[in-house]
Design brief:
Strand content of chain A: 15-25%
Structural class of chain A: alpha/beta
Oligomer: homodimer
Number of strands of chain A: 13
DNA sequence: TAGATTGTTAATCGATTAACAATC
DNA sequence: TAGATTGTTAATCGATTAACAATC
């Protein structure tokens, strides 16, 4: 009845291999780069070389979603980027609420790249009277006691959890109760949510652990 | 001569499959959980069930590093956790400097879980006169102009980049120049660093894009 | 047209899972 | 001892890469 966010290498997601989906954001980033440099066309060979992957893989991946190129020419950067935007569901004005107005919550609330991709922070909540009412950039921190009330009036797609670990699960429960469709969790804990809720865990320390492993290997090699 | 941080599904890392290494931090998290609950022993079947993976995979993964269990009994939680700590190079007092004292940098500087795993923030730097000299928790923000000087006196293993995207590359260059062994990059840009430098990219927006993809699929299904 | 490059099928390679002998 | 569970070899499955006909 419950699911976890750790199905890293699980196999399908609506018939598309998980490995393919995980690469979409990366394609997006490299294409954005080219687009910023006003490059007009790119071949699978060129783009794959930039990314350090195999051109066949790139074509195979795109093939899951349609035919976006042209034989003998390659891909128009703007067009392909647009397709990936569409596939990823970007630029749709998806709304989020952030629970936890600590440094991390504030960092996210003011993260310019979200707006760039069509995400909008509808509100920031906290339970600390010291923080409630304070305005940071465009956002006034609201009392988390009013979370349910707020979401009843303003439906929001994504609940972002940047609270201390101890309260993350109870906040998740309240977000689910209030009807969010997805949870983006920054607390280092395995949340339990109903099957229908999309759960994405931002594993900050996992990234550091991986780095630590490599560092360790390097040191051992010396 | 340069490398990238996106070799997500690349194959080997000192003979160990990359897929295995990516699971180590996850094992660590689940074992910490058990340890916190003072569970003494766990079988591969139990642990794998908790994680939603296959018990064979767990045993296979561990098998790359040694034999940590006991037939008919399973694994002693404390012991296995200790082994994974060791494999990941945790609790070795690895030092870091943080460049960029914005919300994100401050969030990291005060992230209690780092200390918990033996990482130590040696200093925080910024170039904003408004921020320099300000003390947040244990850290006084220092002038980034003095970064090289600081690192010459106090060698540090990891440079953490939480600056705006535009300056991330030049900060990376200076960190490499000053002798850090690894860079943990939070700016959404593909840094170029020499082969010998370990580079770990924290892809905050990639995680959000993945979530967005799933949300999109869900909506389409309605 | 000739050259280039896609989209896709087939071949390879690696990772996951199953099975089981060893043994606590 | 009998039952349980590891560590590891072998089988399966899926993902990556190669190859190439289609075609711009």
């Amino acid at each position: 009845m419950e699911h976890r966010s750790d199905d890293h290498h699980k196999h399908d997601l609506n018939g598309i291999p998980h490995s393919t989906i995980r690469r979409l954001p990366v394609y997006h980033r490299y294409l954005s780069d080219l687009n910023r440099k006003e490059v007009e066309r790119v071949s699978s060979r060129e783009l794959a070389a930039k990314m350090g992957i195999n051109p066949s893989q790139l074509r195979q991946d795109l093939g899951h979603f349609g035919s976006f190129g042209q034989q003998g020419y390659g891909y128009r950067v703007v067009e392909l980027l647009g397709e990936i935007d569409r596939i990823l569901g970007l630029n749709q004005g998806t709304t989020m609420v952030i629970i936890g107005a600590g440094h991390l919550g504030m960092a996210l609330a003011n993260y310019e790249h979200f707006t760039e991709y069509g995400f909008r922070v509808a509100a920031v909540f906290d339970n600390d009277p010291q923080k409630i009412g304070r305005t940071v950039d465009a956002h006034t921190v609201q009392n988390v006691a009013e979370l349910g009330e707020f979401l009843a009036k303003t439906p929001v797609a994504i609940g972002v959890i940047t609270t201390p670990t101890e309260v993350a699960q109870s906040i998740a429960d309240r977000l689910v109760e209030a009807g969010v469709k997805a949870i983006w969790n920054f607390a280092p804990v395995n949340l339990k949510v109903p099957e229908r809720i999309i759960l994405e865990h931002m594993h900050i320390s996992e990234s550091l652990f991986l780095l630590s492993y490599k560092l360790q290997q390097n040191n051992a090699a010396d």
